[in-house]
Write a structure and sequence with these properties.
The complex is a heterodimer of chains A (about 375) and B (about 400). Chain A is about 50% helix and about 20% strand. Chain A has about 375 residues and is an alpha+beta fold. The radius of gyration of chain A is 21 Å and the shape is globular. In chain A, about 50% of the residues are buried. Chain B has 14 helices and eight strands. Chain B has helices at about 10-25, 30-35, 45-60, 75-90, 95-110, 110-125, 240-250, 255-270, 275-280, 285-310, 320-345, 355, 375-380, 390-400, and strands at about 130, 150, 155-165, 175-180, 190-195, 200-210, 215-225, 230. The mean pLDDT of chain B is about 95. Classes of the chains: A alpha+beta (about 375), B alpha+beta (about 400).
């Protein structure tokens, strides 16, 4: 049973204030940053400003790494803000997921994280071999362990943000005679033998298929081994899933706000669309769905370091994926024809909402995973 | 089901233990058995009276009332804990007209005499109350009400009709919204009046719901005389009272526990060793059940967040969330009752009304778990209609959540 003491409450109040100030900062900074931080138009200088100058990227990190010590709730505030302003950015990769993969207590890990937080380095996880490798089996990514060096070969399909990466964190399988285990490696993007097939994502971000052709790595590239490697990779996937749900909440909220605003402006049959009850109720339903998404995301965030993390994460994604589809479709429908035009902001949000639904496995996958976790199947 | 822990102070944790001990002792297996056969929106008259009495003896009949009126004086957190534990235990769902609706109205708007006369009897259960709001031509459009009260010396004379009056057949008193003026806007001519059900000219006619259950009634007033001292608030100021009451009617703040209890009964229906286990092994059915569970978890988190906001003194979203939560609770409850009906399959065709409502003996060729689902499903169609229909909640939210 969780007892809450008075000083806990005080600490919570401080935390709330800190988060509110981070939220304000996000709003101020991101106001019109959409075009510069997006996909092929990604502006590295602006990213470094967000990191080094404004300190935003480090919000969730411990003070020792130059952070504000605001914890996972800061990830959520930032992701929600990125969602609201439709900033497709590598924060999810280089901060949220990298934080789970690297150990800040370890000298190497601390250095990587603080460089990432400064915006000087972009770290992109390449954990699943491809879209169907939910179990993170690394069937196609193998490492040979030599005494001096390691040799990595194989491929990772559909790695989001890969073209922006300075380093990849790669989950690979190591074969030692009979036994098999997994390993997490830090691989420089420009290392010999690393090649990329780049593509544009539907939401304006970029991605690649990565190929590792006899990539030679030193021993110091090993981040973690065995159970530890696997544990961190699973944690990173769930942290990423819940963070992207927070982004979805921001996206859906923005879509609703824009839709409400649009219905107030647009006049048909001699009155603004906002006067039609059928549209009012539809927008209320959007807001009710968003409230649900927000609540389940808050729940899942609270469970990220709990024994039922996987079940809560999947409950979250299953509900948020459903909400994304519902809210995005309604937003476009209520906008009418202008809603399907590329230049209308709502269409950009629609595409990002679609990508979020698929980024970490869709509704069906997560519903199944939830059911396994809660013994419904 | 995801277990969500409410962060509690040491005092509140101790309080929760106290509530659990109380329920373990007083909510006996006999009571549980009877409660599990309830299919209505509220527990039937005798069961409700019995459970109310038990709460009264413990001093917990009115958890939201201040102590000076004999209430338990619980904090918002304690009320949530209490409602949550009761719903988890599956205690009878008590009718709300007296303790939850009339009591707070009298405390807020009543005269000293009204408080002295009525509050103790609501508490003890001596007076069962019912709610006279809806009329045949005034449902969602409540301000269209026509039941009138005319001043005659020291009395009001009431003529007209109320409808959908829950438990009027058990009630000693009814509070009615009456038209006392036709001047100005419709809302400005309404008053809130207390009427004894045994007054000459009051007639109750039952309305059976489609399950065959008798929960609601029509109440007719024919030249019914009540003293003017039975007016609550000022004459023609009843709309303010009515709205205050409606806000209290919307949700107890522990809808998640209420739904989890219903889910618990569903799980008994589809239990692995029972006749309807086949439903649970159907992936489509299991998927629907999982989605319901997830929605309940989201609602529970939302309730916890609201409770924390109240604790911090931020009530800003309280009114909005009351409507949001009502939409969630009613929609999820209906989804659960649909699963119940789907679980028992063809048995849903058999009319269990006569058995459930005491007119026939249970039949041996119907599995006991098939008795309640259909009546529950039929009765719960009302949950999106009463207390402000879903459409009315959406009208409210258009203003409060969308700002239109």
């Amino acid at each position: 049973m969780a007892d809450m003491k008075a000083d806990d409450m005080e600490q919570q109040d401080e935390q709330r204030e800190l988060l509110a100030s981070i939220g304000d900062l996000v709003e101020r900074v991101l106001g019109d940053r959409h075009d510069v931080l997006c996909g092929t138009g990604f502006d590295r200088e602006m990213w470094e400003k967000l990191g080094g100058e404004l300190g935003l990227l480090a919000a969730a990190l411990p003070e020792a790494l130059g952070g504000m010590e605001a914890g996972p709730a800061a990830h959520a505030i930032l992701m929600e803000g990125f969602g609201r302003h439709l900033v497709a950015q590598p924060y999810l990769s280089t901060m949220v997921m990298a934080s789970a993969l690297l150990d800040p207590a370890d000298t190497g890990g601390a250095q990587w994280l603080s460089a990432a937080a400064q915006g000087e380095m972009i770290i992109v996880p390449a954990l699943a071999d491809g879209p169907d490798d939910h179990a993170l089996q690394s069937a196609n990514t193998v490492v040979d362990m030599g005494t001096e060096e390691l040799v990595l070969r194989g491929s990772k399909i559909l790695v989001r943000d890969a073209p922006l990466a300075d380093h990849f964190v790669v989950l690979a399988r190591q074969e030692n005679g009979e036994s098999e285990s997994q390993i997490l490696l830090m691989v420089a993007a420009d290392a010999q033998g690393v090649t990329r097939e780049d593509f544009q994502m539907i939401d304006g971000a970029t991605g690649s298929h990565l190929h590792f052709d006899e990539v030679r790595l030193s021993r110091s590239c090993v981040i973690a081994n065995g159970e530890e490697a696997r544990g961190r990779a699973e944690q990173a996937m769930d942290d990423g899933t819940v963070a992207v749900c927070a982004e979805a909440v921001g996206i859906m909220q923005a879509m609703l706000d824009q839709t409400i605003e649009y219905t107030k402006q647009r006049v048909q049959f001699g009155q603004p669309l906002s006067a039609f009850q059928v549209l009012q109720h539809r927008m209320v339903d959007m807001s009710v769905v968003i409230e649900q998404a927000q609540s389940i995301t808050q729940l899942a965030r609270g469970k990220l370091h709990s024994w039922d993390r996987a079940t809560a994460t999947s409950a979250c994604m299953a509900l948020v994926a459903k909400a994304c589809r519902r809210v995005a479709q309604d937003a476009v429908q209520i906008h009418g024809a202008i809603g399907i035009a590329d230049e209308t902001p709502i269409s950009g949000y629609f595409r990002r909402a679609l990508a979020i639904e698929k980024q970490f496995g869709g509704k069906q996958f997560h519903l199944q995973r939830y059911m396994k976790g809660s013994h419904l199947s | 089901m995801i277990e969500l822990e409410l962060k509690l102070s040491a005092e509140d944790s101790a309080f929760r233990e106290e509530v659990r001990r109380f329920l373990a002792e007083k909510f006996t297996p006999e009571l549980r058995k009877e409660t599990e056969l309830q299919t209505g929106v509220f527990a039937d008259g005798s069961l409700a009276a019995q459970w109310h009495r038990i709460l009264f003896e413990r001093g917990w009949a009115a958890t939201g009332w201040p102590e000076e009126y004999g209430g338990a004086g619980f904090t918002a957190t304690q009320q949530y804990i209490f409602n949550d534990e009761c719903a988890r235990a599956g205690t009878p769902n008590l009718p709300v007209a007296g303790v939850r609706l009339c009591g707070p109205v009298l405390i807020e708007f009543g005269t000293q005499e009204q408080k002295d006369v009525f509050l103790p009897k609501i508490l003890s259960g001596e007076h069962v109350w019912c709610q006279g709001y809806s009329e045949p031509q005034a449902g969602s459009d409540l301000a269209a009400l026509e039941c009138k009260a005319e001043r005659d010396g020291d009395d009001f004379v009431v003529n007209g009709q109320k409808i959908w009056t829950t438990h009027a057949q058990f009630a000693q008193w009814i509070f009615v919204l009456v038209r006392t003026s036709r001047e100005g806007p419709r809302q400005a001519g309404i008053s809130f009046l207390l009427v004894p059900m045994d007054a000459p000219g009051v007639t109750v006619r039952p309305i059976l719901s489609m399950s065959g259950e008798h929960e609601v009634n029509e109440v007719f007033f024919d030249e019914v005389r009540v003293p003017a001292t039975n007016l609550v608030g000022d004459e023609n100021q009843g709309w303010k009272v009515a709205k205050f009451l409606l806000l209290n009617e919307r949700g107890s703040g522990s809808g998640a526990a209420y739904l989890k209890n219903a889910l618990g009964l569903l799980n008994k229906i589809i239990a692995a060793d029972g006749p309807f286990s086949v439903a649970a092994s159907d992936p489509a059915f299991a998927g629907r059940l999982a989605e319901v569970e997830i929605e309940i978890a989201a609602l529970e988190q939302s309730e916890h967040s609201l409770l924390e906001a109240i604790r911090r003194g931020e009530m800003a979203r309280g009114d909005t969330l009351a409507s949001v939560h009502k939409l969630h609770v009613s929609h999820i409850m209906q989804a659960i009752t649909e699963l119940e009906v789907d679980a028992i399959g063809a048995y849903a065709q058999i009319d269990q009304g006569p058995v459930l409502f005491g007119k026939a003996e249970a039949s041996a060729h119907v599995p006991p778990r098939a008795m309640t689902p259909v009546a529950h499903y039929l009765n719960m169609r009302a949950i999106t209609i009463f207390g402000g229909s879903s459409e009315i909640q959406r009208n409210i939210l258009t203003r409060t959540a969308l700002g239109i």
